[in-house]
Amino acid sequence: LNLRPVAAYRMRLTLQDFYEQANPQAAVEFLADWCEMVLASGLNPMIKVARTLMEHAEGVLRWFWSGFSNGLLEGINSLIQAAKAKARGYRTTHNLLNIAYLIAGKLDFALPAR
């Protein structure tokens, strides 16, 4: 009865295999094949995802050359946003920047052992 959501979920699971590709050329081919399959599916939300991936294919494929993601930046941003919420605002931008450096810089304030 729910074949369309099941098909969309299967497509989502298949897309996760993108990161398992052996080399950048295989990833290019995989992404092209996946987008072609989704465009032929007739599932509008998934078609929107495929079009977005095609528009940003260069950035998506860059992962294979760099191996970097924005996860670290998102984590630091989360820490800074939590500090802002806890303080209920800082008096100046300068104070916010100082707190951001203290949080994200992972500075060690421990005194040297004798």
Describe the structure.
- The protein has helices at residues 3-15, 24-41, 44-55, 57-66, 71-87, 93-104.
- It is elongated.
- It is built from six helices and no strands.
- With 114 residues, it is an all-alpha fold.
* Derived structural class: mainly alpha
Distance between the termini: 72 Å
- DSSP strand (E) fraction? under 5%
- Cα-based radius of gyration, to the nearest Å: 22 Å
Give me the strand/helix succession. Answer: HHHHHH
The total beta strand count reads 0
Main beta sheet: strand number and arrangement? none
- The helix tally amounts to 6
Low-confidence stretches: none
Whole-number mean pLDDT: 86
> Which word captures the global form?
elongated
- Indicate the percent of residues in helices: over 70%
Observed structural traits:
single chain, mainly alpha, 72% helix
Write the layout of secondary structure elements.
Elements: H1 3-15, H2 24-41, H3 44-55, H4 57-66, H5 71-87, H6 93-104
Concise account of the structure shown:
The chain has 6 helices and no strands.
